[in-house]
């Protein structure tokens, strides 16, 4: 099966919501000699996002149930803990599969600066998902990946670059939710937002302007929520 057919079938599997198959087909694209194109990497991202997303939701829902059911018997509480352990193992397995592709192939073979930043940012994201359910080791690796990505993005990419802004958005979430560095998360998000705002009017391409503005809106929304949580007006 040639490259274009593999990519087409991966896209088709995604539209059919067969995400295991989509992930397998998108992974096969790495067997071809040329580096992944951005749309091919998007197939991998979409597939794994739809595999890990329901698992992360299940983890959060069962956490809410665990917090609410304070009168359960020890046996039922143990059953729920065992069930959540199973969900955590599935999250870890899914993340490790994607992280191995990123670490073993994608990051080292990134064809452009934009791709390199996107791959490192995705590494940070999946370490963050593991840190939500596992231990601090994954948080440390996530911080390293985000920092590596940001050190490149802040030098090589414009403040309004969608790749740079998406990285900043997720890095700030990591700082706030995983790193418990709330002040740092707010300060970082505010700095990124200001830098992008100063550069926004220089964008002549309408699509690029819309993309940057959309991510900036998400950044501003997070800033508003986080400062409200701290009682800041």
Provide a descriptive summary of the structure in words.
The protein has 9 helices and no strands. The protein is mainly alpha-helical. It has 2 domains: 1-65 and 73-153, 14-3-3 domain (Delta-Endotoxin, domain 1); 157-232. α1 (3-15) packs parallel to α3. This is 14-3-3 domain-containing protein. Residues 3-231 form the 14-3-3 domain.
Mean pLDDT, rounded to whole units?
Answer: 92
| Helical residues, percent | over 70%
Regarding CATH, which class of the largest domain?
Mainly Alpha
- In the CATH hierarchy, the third-tier topology of the largest domain is known as Delta-Endotoxin, domain 1
**Category from helices, strands and their pairing:** mainly alpha
Known CATH architecture of the largest domain: Up-down Bundle
CATH superfamily of the largest domain: 14-3-3 domain
Q: What's the total number of strands?
A: 0
Terminal residue distance = 58 Å
Uncertain stretches = none
Q: Helix segment count?
A: 9
Largest sheet: none
Overall shape = globular
Integer tally of domains = 2
Q: What fraction of residues sit in β-strands?
A: under 5%
CA radius of gyration: 19 Å
* SSE string, helices as H and strands as E: HHHHHHHHH
Write a concise synopsis of the structure shown:
By secondary structure, the protein is mostly helical. It is 81% helix and 0% strand.
């Amino acid at each position: 099966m040639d490259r274009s057919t593999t990519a087409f079938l991966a896209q088709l599997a995604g539209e059919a919501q067969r995400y295991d198959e989509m992930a397998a087909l998108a992974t096969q694209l790495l067997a071809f000699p040329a580096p992944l194109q951005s749309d091919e990497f998007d197939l991998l991202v979409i597939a794994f996002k739809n595999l890990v997303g329901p698992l992360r939701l299940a983890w959060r829902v069962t956490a809410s149930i665990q917090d609410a059911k304070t009168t359960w018997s020890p046996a039922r509480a143990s059953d729920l803990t065992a069930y959540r352990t199973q969900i955590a193992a599935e999250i870890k397995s899914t993340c490790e599969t994607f992280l191995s592709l990123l670490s073993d192939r994608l990051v080292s073979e990134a064809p452009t600066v934009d791709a390199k930043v996107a791959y490192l940012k995705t590494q940070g994201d999946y370490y963050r998902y593991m840190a939500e359910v596992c231990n601090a080791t994954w948080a440390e690796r996530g911080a390293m990946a985000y920092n590596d990505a940001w050190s490149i993005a802040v030098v090589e990419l414009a403040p309004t670059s969608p790749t740079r802004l998406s990285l900043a958005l997720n890095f700030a979430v990591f700082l706030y939710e995983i790193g418990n560095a709330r002040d740092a998360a707010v300060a970082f998000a505010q700095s990124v937002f200001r830098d992008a705002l100063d550069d926004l009017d220089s964008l002549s391409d309408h699509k690029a302007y819309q993309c940057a503005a959309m991510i900036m809106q998400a950044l501003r929304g997070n800033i508003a929520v986080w400062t409200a949580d701290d009682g800041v007006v």
